[in-house]
């Protein structure tokens, strides 16, 4: 019988483990490009993986992270496929969803993601007081791209402060979030979106 030393066993276990990359800046991937592993669909069947992206086909409910986050930086690329498409990013959201349509989190915050300068990157409260925020609509109009174009969104949440950037420009800032921790999620609503390169860094 041939024995394998502990170092070899350790190497084999590492090689067999699921690949979740972390880049030099400390981010960890939330999407492997093939499956929705690490995500939980809440009262929806409208999220799927196709051609290396998360496809969101309207409807209600939401797709949430399997684990909660407190202070973090989240980044992703998205694109609206048609004019007027409407979605959002939930953060510090409860894992429990409302029992009534549209079946979004019982508690949490929503960063509006919509193909419209008028409402894009506003912050709403669900089951909690909506935070006050400052939003630079003029700057947003300069950097917002049209349907079918990939855009980079960056969300930083530390304590009571929220900072949101789009395509490298800081747009929305709030210092009044009160919920301490919760899931990250993508909202199901109107129109179609695609998401890719989702990643997060705990702070």
Itemize the secondary structure elements and their pairings.
Blueprint: H1 6-16, E1 28-29, E2 39-42, E3 47-50, E4 53-57, E5 62-65, E6 72-80, E7 86-93, E8 108-114, E9 123-126, E10 134-135, H2 137-143, E11 151-158, E12 161-166, E13 169-174, E14 183-187, E15 192-202
Antiparallel strand pairs: 1-15, 2-5, 3-4, 4-15, 5-14, 6-11, 6-15, 7-8, 7-14, 8-9, 10-13, 11-12, 12-13
Characterization of this structure:
It is a single chain. The protein is mainly β. The chain has one domain (22-202): Sandwich (Jelly Rolls). It has helices at residues 6-16, 137-143, and strands spanning 28-29, 39-42, 47-50, 53-57, 62-65, 72-80, 86-93, 108-114, 123-126, 134-135, 151-158, 161-166, 169-174, 183-187, 192-202. The strands form two sheets. Strands 1, 3, 4, 6, 10, 11, 12, 13 and 15 form a nine-stranded antiparallel sheet that branches. A six-stranded antiparallel sheet has the order 2-5-14-7-8-9, with no helix packed on it. It is globular and about 35 Å long. The N and C termini lie far apart (48 Å). Mean pLDDT is 90; it is low at 1-21.
